[in-house]
Design a protein that fits this description.
The complex is a heterodimer of chains A (254) and B (306). Chain A contains eleven helices and no strands. By secondary structure, chain A is mostly helical. The model of chain B has no long low-confidence stretch (mean pLDDT 83).
């Protein structure tokens, strides 16, 4: 247990000692601001036009939902940057031996790395709350919906980090880790749209749709909490942490 | 303290280790000698649990590294050929982190870190970034990492590699001072280093153990007897023929006729030397010196790994 905390603390510090954390904050908040600005001006335009055109005015919840969906896109670029170094870099500069010869199980090592990356992303998520808070100050959104959306985003980030850690544990090349993590996360995102073409209806399609994470995010963004969708993210996270553990352990018999 | 039995390891087609067995007793410094690529680092990585062996087992203080890895690793400090350091950490912070990983209780951690820093003379750099340290200091921080939890067994892979002569002497002194409290397995391809610091020596070549024993045993086992050097003042060639009659073998002259080498077999007895000296004095050759020629580890190594 103390091993997990020691590793998590060191790695979290290392993110801030290197340009990784500052670059991620800069990139994330800049893009979020860009999207938010765009959505808000679109929202204003539609709200002004609605009475004249006789249509329905857009709701603040719709604005926020669009924002949260875009967050998933930005994660596609920053989660790989967060996880790529975790094992690859340690393997390249040989410091992984420090962990492998310490009296820690490989599960402790994996969990330590997972906690540090998740903590960093939680700080990023807290920073991103500035945009929904803006709507709370100047509008009247459903606050419950904001909370469940953040819970959904947290679960999403955890599953993406677990996937990234697994990729990083497979290679000593950071760049490869970045590219493959991004590719994998992108696939998870678009699987929902590709499912009808690949699955050809029936069971195949529903399985592919189940694997895609967008399906499971939707209810959270609607302001509902569901056990089955929470379970999806937890199982996904657990499964890839398990894979990472196996990869790390397998070096001892390879 | 360290028991290795019949370790084998293949890297694809390449046989890196072939049934390597040895054991190190408590408090000894054990030298692991071999050319580059002989299998030293592979053996050490297996003993420390970084990689697995195809066959065989390694035990640290009675605990098998694959069966009870946590117990074994608790008693182990390892300095690999590349010191496992985090360049983005401060020396003090890093040693503390290594201590936490090794499960030193929190209340003892601070004093362990301080005493390790003192032992390795890292006081001047304790607040500096590891990435900015010189090679010698990096190596010492690497040693600190291996020593912070006061392990029973210390495994050092080429600890003096790439250091300047003064640093080499310092590190060697340090390693010698650690013997007794720690059992040390040290690898090197520098023969004089092993000869100077180690109690026992193993020579490994292409994954196989060629020989093991103390330096005296190794040099003794190499030949059936001892080689002596004799120096006389005059008439070297006559002295040569005189020696031929006494019962020594392989008589030959060295760089000048007055420098003579000869071999005495173990069976010849101790009195042969008296006879040699007497013959030289009686013959009026002017005996100047009579010494036993010791074989350097280089000779032994080259002969064994041919």
């Amino acid at each position: 247990m103390s091993g997990i905390l020691a590793i998590a603390k060191r790695d979290l510090k290392a993110y801030f000692a290197s340009p990784t954390a500052p670059a991620i904050f800069w990139f994330f908040l800049l893009f979020m601001g860009f999207f938010f600005n765009n959505f808000v001006s679109l929202f204003m335009k539609m709200a002004n036009q609605a009475p004249m055109m006789g249509g329905q005015a857009p709701t603040v919840e719709q604005l926020l939902k669009a924002l949260f969906y875009n967050q998933n896109f930005i994660f596609l670029l920053i989660i790989p940057a967060v996880t790529m170094a975790s094992f690859s870099e340690e393997r390249r500069n040989q410091s992984l031996r420090l962990l492998l010869t310490a009296p820690c199980t490989s599960l402790e090592i994996v969990l330590g790395k997972f906690i540090s990356a998740t903590s960093l992303m939680l700080i990023v998520l807290v920073a991103s709350a500035v945009y929904p808070l803006y709507t709370v100050f100047y509008g009247n959104p459903d606050k419950m919906m904001i909370l469940t959306s953040y819970l959904g985003l947290t679960l999403l980030v955890m599953s993406q980090i677990a996937f990234g850690l697994w990729i990083s544990s497979l290679t000593s090349n950071q760049f490869l880790a970045f590219v493959f993590t991004m590719f994998g996360l992108f696939l998870l995102l678009i699987l929902n749209w590709m499912a009808p073409n690949i699955g050809g209806g029936g069971l195949g399609e529903s399985v592919l749709k189940y694997i895609a994470n967008t399906e499971h995010l939707e209810p959270f963004f609607k302001g509902t909490l569901s056990v089955s969708h929470t379970t999806y993210f937890l199982i996904f996270t657990g499964l890839f942490l398990f894979f990472t553990n196996v990869t790390l352990d397998s070096q001892r018999w390879r | 303290m360290i028991e290795v039995s019949a370790l084998s390891k293949n890297y694809g087609e390449l046989r890196a280790l072939d049934k390597v067995s040895f054991s190190v007793e408590k408090g000894q410094i054990f030298g692991f000698l071999g050319a580059n690529g002989a299998g030293k680092s592979t053996t050490m990585d297996i003993i420390c649990g970084c990689i697995g062996a195809d066959n065989g087992s390694a035990k640290i203080a009675g605990y098998d590294i694959t069966e009870q890895p946590l117990e074994a690793k608790r008693r182990l400090g390892y300095l690999p050929d590349v010191a496992p350091l985090h360049d983005d950490m401060i020396v003090e912070e890093f040693i503390e982190y290594a201590g936490q990983l090794r499960k030193i209780p929190t209340n003892a951690l601070k004093s362990r870190v301080d005493s390790t820093i003192e032992k390795l003379a890292l006081g001047d750099v304790r607040k500096r970034l590891i990435g900015n340290l010189s090679k010698g200091y990096r190596q010492r921080v690497g040693l600190a990492q291996a020593l912070v939890h006061d392990p029973e067994v210390l495994i050092l892979d080429e600890p003096t590699e790439g250091l300047d002569p003064t640093q080499i002497i310092e590190i060697r002194k340090l390693i010698r001072s650690l013997a007794g409290q720690h059992t040390i397995l040290l690898s090197s391809h520098i023969l004089s280093e092993v000869q100077n610091t180690c109690d026992k020596i193993i020579i490994i070549n292409r994954g196989k153990i060629v020989t093991q024993g103390t330096y005296e045993q190794l040099s003794g086992s190499m030949e059936s007897g001892h080689i002596y050097k004799l120096k006389v003042a005059r008439n070297g060639s006559n002295a040569l023929t005189t020696l031929g009659r006494i019962g020594v073998s392989n008589v030959k002259s060295g760089s000048t006729p007055e420098d003579i080498e000869f071999a005495v077999s173990h069976s010849a007895g101790d009195n042969v030397l008296d006879d040699v000296a007497k013959a030289m004095v009686d013959g009026g050759f002017g005996l100047r010196s009579l010494t036993r020629k010791t074989r350097s580890l280089e000779d032994i190594f080259l002969q064994l790994t041919k």
